[in-house]
Amino acid sequence: MTKPFSMSETAQSGTQPPAAPAAAPQSPAKAEEAKQEIAFDIQDLCVFYGAHQVVKNVFMTIPAKSVTAIIGPSGCGKSTALRTLNRMHELTPSARHTGKILLKGENLYGPGMDATIVRRRVGMIFQKSNPFPTMTIAENVLVGLRLNGIRDKAFLARRLEESLRMAALWDEVKDFLHKPGTSLSGGQQQRLCIARAIANRPEILLMDEPCSALDPIATAKVEELIHALKSQYTVVIVTHNMQQAARVSEKTAFFYMGNLIEYAPTEQIFMNPKNPQTEAYVSGRFG
Amino acid sequence: MSSRYDTYRKFKSTCMSVLAVFCALLVVLPLILVFIYLLQMGISSLNWDFLTKLPQPVDPDHPGGGGMANAIVGTLELMGLALVMGVPIGLLGGIYLAEYGSEKAAVWIRFGADVLNGVPSIVWGLVGFTLVVAPMQNYSAFAGGVALAFMMIPMVLRTTEEVLVLVPGSYREAGLALGIPRWKITLHIVLRTAIKGIVTGVLLALGRVAGETAPLLFTALGSSLWNTSLKEPIAALPIQIYYYAISPFEDQNRQAWAGALVLILIVFILSLSVRMLSLRRKRS
What we know:
The structure holds 2 protein chains of 2 kinds.
Chain A: H1 7-13, H2 28-35, E1 38-49, E2 52-63, E3 67-71, H3 78-84, E4 95-103, E5 106-107, H4 115-121, E6 122-125, H5 137-146, H6 153-166, H7 170-173, H8 186-199, E7 204-208, H9 216-229, E8 234-238, H10 242-248, E9 251-256, E10 259-265, H11 266-271, H12 276-282
Parallel strand pairs in A: 3-8, 3-9, 6-7, 7-8
Antiparallel strand pairs in A: 1-2, 1-4, 4-5, 9-10
Helix pairs in contact in A: 5-6, 5-8, 6-8, 8-9
Chain B: H1 2-42, H2 48-52, H3 69-100, H4 103-117, H5 121-136, H6 141-166, H7 169-177, H8 182-210, H9 214-217, H10 237-245, H11 250-283
Helix pairs in contact in B: 1-11, 3-6, 3-8, 3-10, 4-6, 5-6, 6-8, 7-8, 8-11, 10-11
């Protein structure tokens, strides 16, 4: 089981966290950062497809209960890096990685970690919405729970409504829960997939370009949804749309050719980037 | 002049269209002719007696006695046996090939299945004889079922695999991303999506196997009595048609025509259900 990192626990044990606010004069921002829980601690991640290296020596800490965006041109390794966070890259036979990823302090690839359990804690939303066509809307939302053995009808009904409400889909579909999942529009299908992922109550949501197949109105609805989710979930979103990253995220990472070029609060990346390559990308000089 | 070229092009196009339609008719025509001929020859002997009575010895004073009731039931029974024994193996094999197989194993299994699909049906009869009849020292319905099941397995395996491969990978990915174990994804998501295609494949294999005579000749043997046990020989339409057709008695020859008509009707009904299933699939 995960041990939540909390100030009260460490205070009780007597050890001081690295940036103890009481001890030395620190800027409020740094103290705030230190207090914030860390969802992922990525250490020296390299990912190879066969002999070809797609992610090179990435170091990143992703804070919990916030939205982190990963931007970069096509083929820069951002989707691959995202997929290592819930072990989905293992599905590609030639994929392998080196380096360590800690999920809330636990080694994600440690010997005791079952990939299936990991994926229940770290959900994923894909670029193209993929509701199951043979299942109704209700069955789609609850599939993660049902197929993992949960049978309590009252619990499932409650979870169904909660998840659909969180995905801002309840009012639109509450009278049609028995209709097939594919009878919805593209934007609704994507929100259905989000509801399906949320129904599992994962700790973290990974989104791989969730709006790239949607029209602007549906995109706006999904972005609103992401805003609403961040109070309860950690969201890591990969997007090739820079403006979207600027709209939704608190921290942004810029990837290029497999390298993490710059990782900083979103405002800094877009207004005041430190790295010239970042500046060139966000000002549109290449893409 | 371009218009003359246009006319020539249109003429060529019309010629080819006519040729294509003609060839299509050429293919369908034998089927229609055979069916009409069967109807003509068989319908007179197709009566209620035929469908409900057991075969009777030929009586020159009372022609047209007896029927093929046991053969009709026997064919259905053998189809049921082949279904029960052949479909699970073919289905699971197809699932293995599509979902779990390593590249090398898959290539060889597929090759094996394709070869087996082309094996003459009498060889399957020999297999049934060697594996079941010889040890049991008796012809039996079970042996007939085994021979037919062996015939069905490579067909069901290949069609299952082909249908499962058509299920988009994104569904499997979505299921895995939800933390659902692999086998549950295969069972509840992939199979469920592909089920209509699998049923189509099974019905087609069943239709093919329903009319096979050679595998049954020395496994089920045929009989003129009702079959009461799986360990006893059983009558089947193809066998009965064969024996009646080569018999010197005109009476029995006529009954053979009726039997052939019934057999083709069974296969026709199976194919029709396949068509209807796939139409419903297209609509959804």
